[in-house]
C-alpha cells in the first residue's frame, strides 16, 4: 500500500445493550460510530471477520458507555491487527 494509509471498513456493527431504552441504545450506537470515525486511521492489517468486545456493566450515561466501547474496540483491533 505504500504511503497510503490503510482504511478500515466495518460492514456491520452490532451492539448488545441490555437495560437501555431504544433511544439510549440508538444514541450509544451513533456515538460509537462517530467515535470510531473520529479515530482516523484505525489499526488494521487484514480481514478480521468478527471482533467481540465485552465491557463490565456500569451505571453511566450513553456518552460514557460509547467512549468505553470505542476505546476497547480500538484496543481489540490493535491486538488482532
Number of helices: 2
Tell me the series of helices and strands, N- to C-terminal.
HH
Rg, Å, rounded? 14 Å
Large-scale geometry: globular
Structural class: mainly alpha
Which consecutive residue ranges, at least 5 long each, have pLDDT under 50?
Answer: 1-5
Quote the distance from N terminus to C terminus.
16 Å
What keywords describe this structure?
81 residues; mainly alpha; disordered N terminus
Describe the structure.
Helices cover 44% and strands 0% of the residues. With 81 residues, it is mainly α. Helix 1 (22-38) crosses helix 2. The relative contact order is 0.21. Mean pLDDT is 82; it is low at 1-5.
Summarize it.
With 81 residues, this protein is mainly α. It has 2 helices and no strands.
Amino acid at each position: 500500500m505504500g504511503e497510503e494509509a490503510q482504511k478500515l471498513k466495518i460492514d456491520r456493527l452490532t451492539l448488545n445493550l441490555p437495560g437501555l431504552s431504544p433511544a439510549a441504545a440508538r444514541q450509544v450506537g451513533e456515538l460509537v460510530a462517530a467515535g470510531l470515525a473520529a479515530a482516523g486511521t484505525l489499526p488494521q492489517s487484514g480481514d478480521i471477520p468478527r471482533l467481540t468486545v465485552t465491557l463490565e456493566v456500569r451505571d453511566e450515561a450513553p456518552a460514557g458507555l460509547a467512549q468505553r466501547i470505542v476505546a476497547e474496540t480500538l484496543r481489540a483491533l490493535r491486538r488482532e491487527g
